[in-house]
Amino acid sequence: MLRRLALPLALLVVAAHGACSCEPEPVAEIICNFTLTARDGDRIDFGTVEENGGTRSGTIVLKNTGNQSLTALSATFTSNGGHYSLDIPEGFTLAPDQEEALVVIFAPTLRTTLNSELRITHPDLGAGGCPARELVLLGEGVEAQEPADAGVDAGDPDGGIVLDDAGFADGGTIPAPDGGVDFDPTSRWVAYGGFEEARAGFATVPLADGTVLAIGGWGEAGRALDTIERFDPVTGRSRIVATMALARAEPGAVALDANRVAIVGGRSSADGGVVVRTVEILDVAANTLSCPGSQAVAGVCSDNTRGFLPAGRVGPIVTRLNDNEIVVALGRAVDSDVEVAFAGGEILNIGTGAVTPVTGLIARTGEARLVDEDGSFLVVGGLAVSGGVLADGVQFSAALRSAGPAFTLAAPRAFASIARFESDRALLVGGHNAAGVVVGDAVLIDSVFGAAPTAAPLTTTIDARVSPDIAVLPGDIVIIAGGLDSVPGSDNDSVVPLRSAELLVPFGAGFARFAPDNDLAQGRVGGGVVVTGDSVNDDVVVTWLGGFGTAPRRTPHPHAEQYRLFTNDFSSFGLMGAGAAYAATAPANVVAIGGVDPHTGATSARSRAFDAVDGLFLDVSSLQAPRRDHSATAIAGNLVVVIGGRDSTGAVVSSASILNVGGNDAPLPVSLRRARAEHTATLLPGAPTKILLCGGVGAGGELLDSCEIFTAPTNPADDNTFATASFAVVDGRMATGRVGHSATLLDSGEVLLVGGGDVERAQVAADLFDPTEGEIVRTGVPLRARRLHAAVALGAGRVLLAGGEVFEGAVGPSRRAEVYVRATGIFVAVGDMEQARVQPAGFLLGDGNVLIAGGTRSLAEPGFPTVSVVESELYEAGDTGIGTFEAVEVPLSYGRSDVVGVDVFGRAVVVGGTHRDGVIRGGDERRSPQHFVDMLEAIEQE
To answer: Which residue in 217, 307, 875, 888 has a CA-CA distance of 20 to 30 Å to 149?
Structure first.
């Protein structure tokens, strides 16, 4: 029996020499040598395997370290050799520097310990002998288990687990779980703390109740969106309220009155499609859309040829003159699928469809825009059709219903931004000049909508930015954030928007420049900015919505975050960033503890909670000191045990504390026996309260193969009892050092430890924590070495392992899945997932099936090595746990990698993670942090 594994081979180069009259070359020394290694170095531990039918494999690697080809290698076994096999194929040759992997098979026919020794030899090549290499083989044959022997009392109404004669939980029919996530047929993932859909290039319309409409825009993969969301800046909650007849990226929109919003223009698709001519009217109270006048076909604006506009416009300026008349101006047209600047505009009567042309507006793109309440507007600079950079300011007067020149800038600029002060003045910042150089100077414009506006440079400068976001706060304080630090090139040369911000505060005749206390969590360009008041705290709040995370590549994101003037900092609605630990606490909260602050990049002591009932985010008790890569285990009510991790310097720590989410963080007087980070923590059943901590990274960066037991104080709510807490090292060691592994609690109280470590080496046995003996023991060998996988207990001693990072010619995401059966100690292959995934979330459902969501998959395109997964899929386990996957139409709100799934008392919540979208300029893979959450909800059908 033989399986050969392909490994990289060193090529033997032989130089051919022609005849010559030179001295003969000396005879080279013959060296016969080779090495023999396995995953554990000098041994393979096969663990327990069923007699007469069970098999398990282990990989060995032979490498020729001599200078002669080895053509006659042979394998022999010492005692018990009849239970092992290693076939070396006929004609097998191992050239110098070449290595080959062969597979040893253990197939016991007896029920006993069957240790052996593998010996590899080669005949003498005339070099004074060839070495022999040995490898220790460890294995035990055990009694075969009948698959149908459930060991569950069929008359037991609870379908409970019993122990069979072997002393472990039996693996018969899986009873329905007592809990699990509710998966209604109408379920879908809903975002909290950001948009429901990632979007950029959308129209924003503030409403009277303080909420904001986000209309259309560009979605993921360059898709034009047809949805309208209503975002609440107080709660951070956004919900899709209507769907337009046509998708519209970069539409224009304006409120006609308190109840109606006119939506105009836009592009229906990035490739092909149409530039939209129709106008749709949103009824804000009823969340319904109508198609006024002769545009309608059966009341719907789906026939673009019947639109009111003479020609569609992408990114037009839209202003309101009165309840029925709007101005639609400038923007872009499409010529042979290429966007070109569009001149002029129209005054459009919504009721009649009558159109009056507006002249005096030269075609341009990348202009700065400022709109007045009466419908007047100002445009400054931009790129002309010829490609030149403009320096003019052009004003449209609502009173005169005409446009004309207003002033000339001292220097031309395009893609600048402008905002108006409380007086009739405005500030122009950023953009690039005629040479394509990004500028940081500012221009003050006086009498913006007066008869003779003027523009004069300021001595105050800002960071050089293209298309920054700008907003004016009360007192003429200006905040400038985001934008690009260079002019983007092609899609394959995209740049990441800036996260930095700056404040300009009136000072004397000019402005003083200050910095906020932190940065945006997510760089952005092409999003929305809304200034609102916080009446409770008497504060001013600026909310940033959506936008592109890379440009010009259309990579939008759904993030929302706020700047508060009172505290002079940015904050996200969502939870903490990478390295945070999560716990479900009473009554229905997900608490994110510590981790990396997404606004500063520093390790944080902050904790935040997401209320899964009301969908709100709130700050809760902080840690006494910053910590990341630690564990957090809820033990009672709002009490969470925090153990290990890394401090603010990155050092791995051994300290522990008990965080009262509604109170304080109290350090424990006991510590881990060995400092560890990125470990697993499993709450064990029964009393007293104990937590099993396994693996992780040690203080020197080594992978740990040890486990410890934490015993909680007799009264965790009373720090006077903290001295009764303890840590104790568990007897035995895991088969290997593990990080990125899974620790899954079985029905029997045992904990299955699988994966982690170096997946490029051969598989090693999984481990079990035996609570009866308090030790680590070996169990079966997984079918694949994997890490960062999903592991979900199905019941009846079975665990589903899905996806993760594996080695199949290269390290990458996997679609493979398998089920561990405790009754036999064997891992059984099941159907592949629909999508390869690294670090997805897995949830046990109330019907015994499993929902898998998120993760990272490979993208076989140059420059895009990995991409975040948005799709979900369902594993139908059946009565035995051996089932198949199928795709379900339950996508996440946004693709998420490295996610954490939290079952919040029957509510599935996906938290944290990153969004990956390939390599950008500079060769770095783009990974933006995700700090909002997705929650699975049943949606009422209309």
So the answer is: 875
In whole angstroms, what is the distance from residue 890 CA to residue 873 CA? 8
Dihedral through CA 326, CA 329, CA 334, CA 339, nearest 10?
A: -130
- For residue 430, give every residue at least 6 positions away whose Cβ sits within 8 Å of its Cβ, in sequence order, or none: 415, 416, 417, 438, 439, 440, 462, 464, 465, 466, 467, 468, 470, 480, 483
Residue type, 932: F
Place of tokens 């298309």: 467
CB atoms closer than 10 angstroms to residue 86:
21
Per-residue exposure over 615-625, b if at least 16 CB sit within 10 Å of its own CB, e if not: bbbeebbbbee
Q: How far apart are CA 593 and CA 622, in angstroms?
A: 8
Rounded CA-CA distance 365/362 in Å is 10
Separation between Cα atoms, residue 824 and residue 145, nearest integer Å? 6
Residue 380 in this model has a pLDDT that exceeds 70: yes
426: CB partners within 8 A, 6+ apart:
370, 378, 418, 419, 420, 444, 445, 448
CATH fold of 199-359 reads: Neuraminidase (2.120.10)
Residue 537's pLDDT band, with cuts at 50, 70 and 90, is low
Is 892 within 8 Å of 192 (Cβ atoms)?
no
pLDDT tens-digit readout, 242-285: 999 999 999 999 999 999 999 999 999 988 789 999 999 999 99
pLDDT at residue 128, rounded to an integer: 78
- pLDDT of residue 158 exceeding 80, the answer is no
> Encoding tokens for residue 276?
């939209």
Sign of the CA dihedral running 605, 609, 610, 612 = positive
Residue 865 confidence (pLDDT)? 76
Give pLDDT tens digits for 62-102. Answer: 899 999 999 999 999 988 888 999 888 888 889 998 888 78
Structurally, at CATH architecture level, domain 4-142 sits in Sandwich (2.60)
What does the DSSP 8-state code read for residue 686? S
Q: Report phi then psi at 217, rounded to 5.
A: 110, -175
Say how far residue 318 (Cα) sits from the centre of its chain: 36
The owner of tokens 């902050």 is: 606
With CA atoms as reference, report the closest residue to 203 among 160, 274, 255, 164: 255
Extents of the domains making up the chain: 4-142, 199-359
If you ran DSSP here, which 8-state letter would residue 626 be given?
-
Q: What's the 3-state SS for 587-614?
A: CCEEEEECCECCCCCCECCCEEEEECCC
% of the chain with per-residue pLDDT over 90: 72
Q: What is the pLDDT of residue 535?
A: 60
Cα–chain center distance at 541:
28
Question: Which phi and psi (to 5°) does residue 533 adopt?
Answer: -110, 150
Nearest to 173 by CA among 191, 186, 160, 163: 160
Beta sheet of 690-694, edge-to-edge order = 680-684, 690-694, 707-711, 726-729
In this prediction, residues 533-557 reach a mean pLDDT of 86
What is the SS3 assignment for 574? coil
**3-class secondary structure per residue, 140-206:** EEECCCCCCCCCCCCCCCCCCCCECCCCCECCCCCCCCCCCECCCCCEEEEEECECCCCCECCEEEE
More confident residue, 148 or 177: 177
Integer Cα distance of 623 and 611 in angstroms: 20
